[in-house]
Design a protein that fits this description.
Elements lengths: L13 H10 L5 H14 L7 H16 L3 H11 L1 H23 L3 H13 L4 H8 L5 H10 L2 E3 L19 H13 L1 E5 L2 E10 L5 E7 L3 E6 L8 E7 L1 H14 L8
Antiparallel strand pairs: 1-6, 2-3, 2-6, 3-4, 4-5
Helix pairs in contact: 2-3, 3-7, 4-5, 5-6, 6-7
Length: 260
């Protein structure tokens, strides 16, 4: 079984926290160093609460991907029109934030957001405002790609997200779940993302899913209690792709290239 870490979250960064858990930066030196280097760019220390500052790094990278040509080229190549949808939704989201913070007379945040719109400079108040909203499935797929992860959609999904549900449970579903957990599996529950850690048998011979909740609790869900509201998202992380995308990200952010 693939061991994953258990990270906490900032406000509404459960998706980024869960994605980082299944990406396992601690066991991937290249990703670990990349996240640390992005944190240095934004002035976030990784000496304490490293996983929380890594989430800031993820948000920064997503904002950068909305206008950086190098990142955009790679994201368009895989996501096509979904990438343009991301840009449209981001623009609408941040425009609403400008009005919200204007009403609150928070002119520091308004100034930072306007700087992002006009000069494509990402200041901390704009970054933190962007992270205030829970990340979508599309945003998580994009950040996963930049970290060497590919989203593996369910071809039989009917909701357009490619998620897996286990309404009518079969023995084969157990095998599918186990395989996906070994690759990297997230669970979406309405307005919350979680990372799936393990599938095991309890003392009563029930199959149980162990879930790492970014709110720092470990949840347990019996396989037989799964419903259509439990939506699973499957990712595969590839070391070769991670190295390729690390070079792309480093060049886009003008970071030192990793040593060969």
């Amino acid at each position: 079984m693939r061991e994953i870490p258990h990270y906490g979250q900032l406000y509404n960064t459960c998706g980024l926290s869960s994605l980082l858990m299944i990406a396992i930066p601690e066991k991937n030196g290249g990703l670990h160093r990349l996240l640390d280097d992005i944190c240095k760019v934004i002035g976030a220390s990784t000496e304490f609460n490293k996983e929380l500052n890594w989430q800031l790094a993820c948000g920064y990278l997503l904002l950068k991907a909305s206008f950086n040509r190098t990142l955009a080229w790679h994201l368009r190549k895989l996501f096509d029109y979904d990438y343009y949808n991301f840009k449209i939704l981001l623009n609408n989201q941040l425009t609403e934030k400008v009005q919200y913070h204007t009403n609150k007379m928070d002119f520091k945040t308004v100034s930072a957001l306007n700087t992002f719109f006009k000069a494509k400079i990402i200041k901390k108040p704009a970054l933190k405002t962007y992270l205030d909203d829970m990340k979508t499935n599309l945003e998580l797929k994009m950040i996963a790609l930049l970290f060497g992860g590919i989203y593996m959609p369910n071809a039989e999904s009917t909701d357009g997200t490619g998620c897996y549900t286990f309404d009518k449970k079969k023995k084969k579903d157990l095998e599918t779940l186990n395989e996906m957990i070994n690759d990297g599996l997230m669970l979406g529950l309405f307005n919350h993302w979680l990372a799936v850690k393990d599938l095991y048998k309890d003392e009563e011979n029930n199959f149980v899913l162990a879930i790492n909740d970014p709110l720092k609790s470990t949840n347990k869900i019996k396989f037989n209690d799964l419903t259509s509201s439990h939506r699973f998202y499957h990712y595969k992380f590839d070391q070769k792709l991670q190295k390729q995308m690390e070079e792309v990200v480093r060049k886009a952010l003008k970071l030192n290239l990793r040593s060969k």
